[in-house]
Specification:
Shape: elongated
Pfam families: Hemerythrin
Low-confidence stretches: 1-5
Protein name: Hemerythrin superfamily protein
InterPro entries: Hemerythrin-like
Number of helices: 4
Mean pLDDT: 91
């Protein structure tokens, strides 16, 4: 069973917006550090950003998959394809985070890592827009 906030558009949207805004701020910091060639500081900040994605967005995604998506699929079987697509979005986020961690561990911070952090934002933004269309307006 999903938490009460996940099924209500306003509270669910607020969860998405807060996590996304924090991620955008971290990306802006990373971009400035890269521009200023502060690669050690950028590496530290990148690990903070990874932790943010893991603890905020991916943990939220996990709770959606375990509760909300199952409930929506039971209540409205016609949403099956949409729920599969939303779950695939979560998988893409997980893959990007895994790739970022591997790149940081192997080569440190780089423009390629920043591009993947930017991709995370874009995938998450598009995902949230689609997901919020499914939620009742309470």
């Amino acid at each position: 069973m999903s938490g009460p906030g996940l099924k209500h558009i306003d509270s669910h949207s607020a969860i998405h917006e807060a996590a996304l805004n924090e991620a955008i701020e971290l990306n802006e910091i990373l971009e400035k550090l890269l521009t200023d060639a502060q690669l050690e500081k950028a590496l530290e900040t990148a690990y903070v950003a990874v932790e943010h994605w893991e603890t905020r967005t991916l943990r939220h995604a996990e709770s959606e998959e375990e509760g909300l998506y199952k409930e929506l699929a039971e209540e409205s079987p016609e949403l099956k394809d949409t729920i599969i697509a939303l779950t695939r979005d979560h998988d893409l986020l997980r893959l990007l985070v895994k790739e970022i961690k591997e790149m940081l561990d192997t080569d440190g911070f780089s423009d390629a890592v920043l591009q993947r952090f930017q991709a995370l934002i874009l995938v998450d933004l598009l995902h949230n827009e689609e997901e919020e269309k499914l939620l009742p307006n309470h």
